[in-house]
Design brief:
The chain is α/β, with parallel strands linked by helices and 299 residues long. The protein is built from ten helices and ten strands.
């Protein structure tokens, strides 16, 4: 399998090493979507490499928090990504000029409750959780088909990346619909959510006896506490609520989840710690690492 990955990557290099682009190795297309309940609006930006379509189609990374991730997809990063394999990158964001739509992501990225009803967010009771199933359906039935309508995608080389609540969503997809992607990247996944519900689900998934054919999982963990204490009252309450929520699971919860997934036949896991980074700075670093994931590269 590793030999096949190398051959695929080398083929992409031959196709894209000497591109005929004038200004940027990527062009961009924008699509708009609305959630099934009409409550959230999405702006999806697709970055398309300026090179010939590989046999079998382009590999692809679907990036959550697309507004912020796109802002971190600088010209230097685009050029490096192009040279290293040129995946299509689909930035799934919200129709706002802000980097994050915190209310929408809190709903979309969190697993549904047992009765399927929305529940208040642990960090801020004015926003709701529990829309992950609906959000995954949007990706599978609306966003992916729209991307594939104009771009030839290699459906055996699809990756999903997310950070924090987005990392929680990545693990939700892997445990509930593993066939949706062939590679997953979760950065600082919010395993504390629901009192450690996803951590329990990973253990159940590990012991289920399920077998897969070549899924890659990259879990990344920051090692520093955020030091910024210049909060207004509302943000301070959210910060204190997060500290309390995080303490509901062991400090090594992400590593524990990695071990659980590694016990599943057919899932290759790479666990990477960044002791010098805190939660926020891990966002761009983990996104940049995930750009290599569609080509089977987890180093």
């Amino acid at each position: 399998m590793r030999l096949m990955m190398f051959r695929y990557a080398f083929l992409i290099f031959l196709l894209c090493a000497f591109p005929a682009f004038a200004e940027s190795p990527y062009s961009f297309e924008v699509l708009k979507f609305t959630s099934a309940d009409g409550g959230r609006s999405y702006r999806v930006v697709t970055a398309i490499p300026a090179c010939a379509v590989p046999e079998g189609g382009y590999s692809v990374l679907y990036a959550l928090d697309g507004n912020a991730a796109l802002a971190d997809f600088s010209e230097d990063v685009r050029t490096r990504t192009f040279r290293e394999g040129a995946p299509v990158v689909v930035f799934i964001g919200y129709d706002t000029e802000e980097r994050f739509d915190v209310d929408s992501r809190a709903f979309d990225y969190t697993p549904p409750s047992s009765d399927g009803k929305p529940v208040p967010d642990a960090l801020r009771s004015t926003r709701m959780n529990g829309g992950a199933a609906m959000y995954l359906e949007l990706i599978e039935k609306k966003i992916k088909p729209a991307v594939e309508e104009h771009i030839k995608i290699n459906k055996s080389r699809q990756a999903l990346w997310g950070h924090s609540y987005g990392g929680l969503f990545v693990l939700y997809v892997l445990t509930s619909s593993p066939e949706s992607f062939q590679a997953y990247a979760a950065a600082d996944p919010a395993l504390w959510w629901g009192g450690g519900e996803m951590l329990k689900k990973t253990e159940e998934f590990s012991s289920s006896g399920a077998e897969f054919d070549g899924i890659n999982l990259l879990i990344m963990k920051s090692g520093q506490e955020s030091r910024n204490r210049q909060f207004d009252d509302e943000k301070r309450k959210a910060y204190e609520a997060r500290v309390k929520a995080v303490s509901s699971v062991p400090a090594d919860a992400a590593k524990t989840a990695a071990y659980s997934f590694a016990a599943v036949k057919g899932i290759t896991v790479r666990y990477r710690e960044y002791p010098q980074l805190s939660h926020g700075p891990l966002f761009p670093v983990s996104f940049h690492a995930a750009l290599r994931l569609p080509l089977g590269q987890m180093d």
